[in-house]
Amino acid sequence: MKVWPRPPEEPFPPPFQAMLTAILARAARVQGGRTEVARARQRALSQSGTFVGHRAYAPGDDLRRLDWHAFARTGQLFLKLLEEEERRQTTLLLDTSASMLAGEPARWTGTLRLAAILGGLALRHLDGVRVVAGGTDVAFAGSAGLSPMLQHLRVLAPRPFDPVAAAQSVVARGAPGRIAWLSDFADPAAVERALAVLRRCSARVVGWQPMIAEDLDVPLRGWLRLVDPETGVAESIAVDAELAAAMREELVRLRRRQDRAFVSFGYPLQRFPLPAATDFGLASWLEAAWSRRS
Amino acid sequence: MEPPFLTAPERLWWLILLPVLYWLALPPRPRRETLTAHLPQWLAAAARLRRRPPRFRRWRFLLLVLAVVGAVLAATGPSLPGTVGPSRLCVVVDSSASMAHRVGDRTAADAAIAALRTGLMNVPPHVEIVVVIAGGGVARRHGAAARAFADPLQPAGAAVDLAAVVAAAGSEPDTAVWTITDGQSPPLPEASALTLCGASGDNAAIAAVEVVDAWPLPELRLRVQLQSRSRAPWRGQLQAQGAIDAAGPFAVVLQPEERQVAELPLRRTAAGGALTLELQMPGDVLPLDDRVVLALPPLPLPTIAVLGDRTSPIVRTAVAVLADEVGGKVIEGDELSRAGFLFVEGGVAELPPGATRAIAFGCRSPAAPLPEVWPSPTIVDWDRQSPWTAGLDLSELEVAHALHGILPAGEPLLWGGGPGGERVPLLVAVPGERRALHFAFRLQDSNLALLPAFPQLLRRAFLGSFGAAHRIPAPQLPVPGTESDLRALPAVGRPLPAFGSPARDLGAYCLLAALLALAIRAYVR
Questions:
Q1: CB distance A227–B39 less than 8 Å?
Q2: Using CA atoms, how far apart are residues B285 and A32, in angstroms rounded to an integer?
Q3: Which of A132, B117, B182, B424 is the most exposed place for a label (fewest CB within 10 A)?
Q4: B50 lies within 8 A of chain A by CB
Q5: What ipTM score was computed for the predicted complex, to two decimals?
Q6: Where does B88-196 sit in CATH, by number?
Q7: Where in chain B is the domain with CATH 3.40.50.410?
Q8: How many helices (H) and strands (E) does chain A have?
């Protein structure tokens, strides 16, 4: 299989780093930002700790956490939510498959920049960040960990990515905390299997899908050779208006499957339209910061 | 089996078009390559619209190559080499009279036709066939008429020299010769296929028939020569039937290898007709030579009328003698219309040439002028070769006087010396269907009646007036004597040789394969 190189553009140019600094500086001033730490602590749930409440059972939940007393009283299945004081960290699970190289600008670069923002905010509000990507699992802690994290993200290269294996890797090292899964979710079936693994461990997952133009529309026309960088399969297709319309329907169908995969496990999926490659405007990227808090 | 060969192999150069076809069959290359994470969605969208990505269609290209190769091969004229062997068959069928002999419940001729039909069915269609019927004469059939030959043979005539016929037929190139015979006409040809359809057996034949005719009297005597082709004495009978009074059958005993003569005294009927003579021998294998048919003409009307001077004693005596000689009678008066022969002595009478049987003495035609009397003509000569007067002695003939210019046109038979020494006819024979003798003098004016030749002359006049119609034609023997011996032992037959086959053109098959490939290609996507 062909080994694809990293995109040539620098993922974190100085304008982006300046914008990132501005975003991190604003993080404390946004509405509710002061209580972010406390809320984050409360959300750091685990299998042991202080009981903080119930939530409805969803398929894939650990049956050991069912509250049978509540079932006896109400006839409905609830899970007990426990707070673990010690574990407060965010795990960035990055899809490093070659399919992330698609798009103009490449989804790969946008994903790294989004991961930098999300990781920076986590380092700003929480104690630590785990970056699981490309077979690596590196932890960063505190504001001082920002630069090493950026450097770590910069050197990542496209590698085969198995969502299920990655999920198992994440949960194998213990409480992953809040998991931000950045991917194109091109294979909803594999995504469902990976989410089932994470759900079984009661992990809290937020899916982040950096959107490129091809995810929403079909700007391409003409006689094209389309290459799937992940599988290496190439097809020559003549794209006209009729095929573009059919392709748009397929994209809608794909997004519905992706949404269904996350909704079935009770996890949110955030779609973040990537700005242009040279767009480092604060307004364009601040949306990501706000979305993280929701 | 030899491999196929190409008639025009230089046309294989057209196969250099194949790389061009391959280049044309390649799908066009997109000018732009794009990475996408949604290739499955692209393919699903295209499949929903029933669109297939353009790609190199192996099967379509292979079928196109097959069609082109087939067309080029068809143009090069591929052929399967033929096999060496004769491409022409000459069948010589013996149709001599001996082929009519019986073999079981059929004749040898029927067996020959059956063998011919069976053999020709096994001859390949491309072989040109000539059938030569050799019997009496030689007849030929060519082409489709020869291949479908099924006419019954009519055995007749003497045997043809089969060896010579076969040698002549075999001298043509690429020709095989097949002889079908009964084997009774040696020598048999040695350089051809041979089928023997006859069998040996005893045969007796009528070898010759001699007719002793007493015409105009009804008595008839047949001298029949019989030939036995057996190895033991043979008893049988000879039967005569037809235009005769009842007679026979006549028993015969034939000795081996001897020719015997049987004499049959018969009596003809007046009306005439066919007389069938049949030799009936038990166990005779060839009935064709046992039967002879003779055509007997009707007997003459034996009535004699006298015109002119009936009172002359010489005339009356002469007529009476003639009637007695030919078995007729003299009629007079109203019966003249039934007269078969006229005896005219002087006077005037209308005797149309060729329409009257008569002997006329000194009779002139009513249309002729009055004749000039020729006193004491001297007899200078007579025709000694004519059948009328041959062998007769007329040297003592004396004529008191004759008449000039009363003789009709005809063949002069007797001459007298004229005044200037010239020869003047005194007797002419008028030809025609009905003949007549005209004398230039009356019978009573000469001493002709006193000559010894006169009775014979009268008889010849009567018989000669009927011309040749009274003669019994010599019978035709259906089987020559050489065909009657059927005792030859059958020889061993020889099979037909293996025929060659022409080169087989495979161009049509190549073209058909090319068209089939194109037809299949139309349904392959």
A1: yes
A2: 142
A3: B117
A4: no
A5: 0.80
A6: 3.40.50.410
A7: 88-196
A8: 9, 11
